[in-house]
Design goal:
406 residues, mainly alpha, MetI-like fold, 2 domains, two-stranded antiparallel sheet, 20 helices, transmembrane, sulfate transport, transport
Length: 406
């Protein structure tokens, strides 16, 4: 009792002491000091020590009905849980942990609910923060100044140039804009941009998924080096990338004779442009999937294999449902990067009008030729494609947060 009171004074003081039990068989207990037969006959029975009715380990005797009732009772709920659901409060930690130890009862349900709330908060915070965080109000002068500086910086660097492109493209009306959009060279550049994205995104999606699973599910020599190679497109300039590919696959490159014998050309042609785009967009899917796969419990895949599922069935029914939001996020980033690529494609394509020109290359050529209206029209189309990509990205984040909150 004393040790219990030292460790949990508030809990022991708040709970009533259990009713003392009578001595066994109605016999008096011996006093602490030695006594003769006459003293034993006259000595009153000392009251037994009261037991504390808390859950500490020093309290002897059986568990109490009060603790059992607390475990069986549903955990208190919060009304501010994400996704409109309820979450257990901090005061129900003992009951939920006790109930989840045997995998049954309301305690297990409360623990599962708490895990869902934590997952929802993490999804909302890690993928954009759609209401997932509850920050402090901006109620002081330093915070307001910092917020004003941030807004002004974003407006000067991002918002005003973006708005100015639309103003310059439509300052003479919609007619000149449509005239440039319907130009054959403009239309060809648009088709090349969309075609490059349509080729590079699926290939990098398949490669990134396979590479991420291989890296996270296996240990092999050179794993760190492989991760460094996957990050190389982030650190190499796109112009250098185009030059490397041109030197390797060009007329004086290592594969020049082989390509010439088979009548296949990479440089100044669409295959080389697709290869350059795939190089610069390669890391996005891999880097989005590796953290997701590391957080996934591999025992789910092991259980599926134990039940007789083949690798394709394990991926389709177990792995893919757990990584689909990260995969979609990587696909969106890959698509945005592919449509906006300039440096590597410019070097390896030769920027041939009507043949190897994309929208980004069309903007540069039109602006250098003082055809600013055509350049602004192409910039508007690229901006619209970027806005569509951002909208899809936002919808993916909202869907992921909503699913995690369920």
């Amino acid at each position: 009792m004393a040790a219990c009171a030292q460790r949990q004074p508030a809990a022991c003081a708040a709970r009533p002491l259990a009713t003392p039990r009578p001595p066994p068989h109605g016999r008096a207990r011996l006093p602490p000091r030695a006594a003769g037969p006459a003293t034993l006959a006259a000595a009153p029975a000392p009251a037994p020590a009261a037991r504390c009715s808390c859950s500490c380990s020093d309290a002897p005797g059986p568990r109490w009905p009060a603790a059992a009732a607390a475990i069986a009772a549903p955990a208190p709920r919060r009304r501010d849980a994400p996704g409109g659901g309820a979450a257990p409060t901090s005061g129900s930690g003992a009951s939920s942990s006790s109930g989840s130890s045997d995998g049954s009862g309301s305690g297990g349900a409360a623990a599962a609910q708490r895990r869902r709330v934590i997952a929802a908060s993490g999804a909302a915070g890690g993928m954009g923060g759609h209401g997932g965080g509850r920050g402090e109000p901006v109620d002081s002068l330093p915070k307001r100044l910092l917020l004003g500086v941030a807004i002004a910086y974003i407006a000067l660097v991002v918002l005003l140039p973006f708005i100015n492109v639309f103003i310059q493209a439509f300052h003479k009306g919609i007619g000149p804009f449509l005239e440039h959009v319907l130009d054959p060279d403009f239309a060809h550049a648009t088709r090349m941009t969309l075609l490059l994205a349509a080729v590079s995104v699926p290939l990098n999606t398949v490669f990134g998924t396979v590479a991420a699973i291989l890296i996270t599910r296996n240990q092999f020599p050179g794993k760190v080096f492989l991760l460094s190679l996957l990050d190389m497109p982030f650190s190499i300039s796109p112009v250098v990338t185009g030059l490397m590919l041109t030197l390797l696959y060009g007329r004086s490159g290592w594969f020049a004779q082989f390509l010439a014998e088979h009548g296949f050309s990479l440089v100044f042609a669409f295959p080389g442009m697709a290869l350059a785009t795939m190089f610069v967009t390669m890391p996005f899917v891999v880097r989005e999937l590796i953290p997701t796969l590391e957080q996934m419990d591999p025992s789910q895949e092991e259980a599926a294999r134990t039940l007789g599922a083949n690798p394709l069935q394990v991926f389709w029914h177990v792995t893919l449902p757990n990584i689909r939001w990260g995969l979609m996020y990587g696909v969106i980033l890959t698509n945005a990067r592919a449509m906006g690529e300039f440096g590597a494609v410019s070097v390896i394509s030769g920027n041939i009008i009507g043949k190897t020109q994309t929208l980004t290359l069309f903007v540069e050529s039109a602006y250098k030729e003082y055809n600013s209206e055509a350049a602004f029209a192409a910039a508007v189309l690229l901006s619209v494609l970027a806005l569509m990509t951002l909208w899809v990205k936002d919808r993916v984040e909202q869907a992921a947060a909503a699913e995690a909150a369920k």
